[in-house]
Amino acid sequence: MSATGIIQTQTLEVSLGPQHPSTHGVFRMDVVLDGEYVVKLKPVMGYLHRNHEQLAEKMTWLGSMPYTDRLDYFCSMTNNWAYALAVEKMTGLKVPERAEYIRVIMAELTRLLNHSCAIGFLLSDCGAWFTPVLYALREREWILDFFETVSGARMMCNYMRFGGVRVDLDDASLAMARNIVARWPAFLDEFEKLMTENEVLLARTQRVGILSRNLAINASVSGPVARASGVEYDIRKVDKYGVYDRFDFGVPVGEAGDTFDRYMIRILEMREAVKILEQALRDIPAGPFIAPEAKLRNFKVPAGDGYGRIEAPKGELGFYLVSEGGAKPYRYHVRPPSFINLTILEDMCLGQKVADTVIILGSVDIVLGEVDR
Amino acid sequence: MSVPLGYYLMLGGVLFCIGLCGALTRKNAIAVLMSIEIMFNAAILNFVVFWYYLHNGALTGQMFALFAIAVAAAESAVGLALVISVYRHYRSVDVDEMKALKG
Amino acid sequence: MDAIYQLIHDYCPTMPDWLALALAILLPIAIVMGVFLTVFALLTWVERKALGRIQNRRGPNRVGPVGLFQPIADGLKLLTKEDIVPNAADKVVHFLAPVLVVVPAFMVLAVVPVAKGFIAVDLNIGVLFALAVSTASVLALFMAGWASHNKFSLLGAMRGVAQVVSYEVPMVLAAVVVLMASGSLSSVSIVEAQRGLTGWFVCKPWGLVGFVIFQLCAMAEVARTPFDLPEAESEIVAGYHTEYSGFKFALFQMGEYVAAITMGGITVTMFLGGYLGPGCDLPKFGWLISACWFFAKLGIIVVINIWARGTWPRVRVDQLLGFAWKLLLPLSLVNIVAMAVWHFAPNKLVGWVESAVLLAVAIVALVKINAGQTFEKRSYRFTS
Amino acid sequence: MSNLLGKGMIDGLVVTAKNFVTSYFDGNRKDRLFTYQYPEERMKLPENSRTFPFLVYDGTPDQMRCTACKVCETECPPQCIYIVMERDANGKPLLRPRVFDIDISVCMQCGICAEVCPTNAIKMDCDFERSAHGRFETLLSHLPELLKSNDYYHQIKSAEATRVDATRKPVKKAAAPAPVKPMPTPADILTEDERSAWQRGCQSEIGTGPIVWPPPVVVKKKVAGTNTEQNVSAAPLPTGTPWHDSGIDIAARMELAKDRSLADKLMAAMAQLDCQACGYDCRGYADALASGTNSDFTLCTPGEEETKNMLEKLLKEAGKL
Amino acid sequence: MNIVFLTLSAIMVLGAVLAVTLRNLVHCLLALVVFFLGIAGHFFLLKADFLGAAQILIYIGAVAVLILFAIMLTRNISGTEGGRSSLGGAWWLGVGLASSLAGMMCVFVRRSELVTKLPYGATEEGVVKEIGKLLVTDWVVPLEIMAVLLTAALIGAVVIALEEEKKR
Question: Hey, are the CB atoms on A7 and E164 less than 8 Å from each other?
Answer without folding.
Answer: yes
